[in-house]
Design a protein that fits this description.
The chain has a domain at 4-43. The longest helix is centred in the middle third of the chain and has 23 residues, at 21-43. The chain is mostly helical and 84 residues long. Helices cover 57% and strands 0% of the residues. The protein has helices spanning 4-15, 21-43, 63-75. The two termini are 38 Å apart.
Length: 84
């Protein structure tokens, strides 16, 4: 999140870009992205993922580990399976 001074400075820079057309577009895009990220940071709380444990299952996975995974899955309400 930008401080109030950084926010005002970014807006001022956006209104006073003096460069060639191509460079002006690049600078404008960067400054607009910075302002948009600031807007999101002030509107929304940061994302905090749920605690999770990854299990990698393959042919060498032991039976006790598989039983532990089965037990964890039966008590879980959400889980993801990725098969690649």
């Amino acid at each position: 999140m930008l401080s109030e001074e950084e926010y005002q400075d970014t807006k001022r820079q956006l209104n006073n870009i003096t460069a060639t057309a191509k460079l002006r577009q690049k600078i404008r895009r960067i400054l607009l992205k910075k302002l948009k990220e600031h807007e999101y940071a002030t509107k929304f709380n940061p994302f905090e993922p749920l605690p999770h444990i990854q299990f990698f299952i393959n042919r060498t996975t032991t039976e006790p580990i598989l039983q532990q995974i089965i037990k964890a899955v039966t008590t879980s309400t959400e889980f993801t399976i990725d098969i690649e």
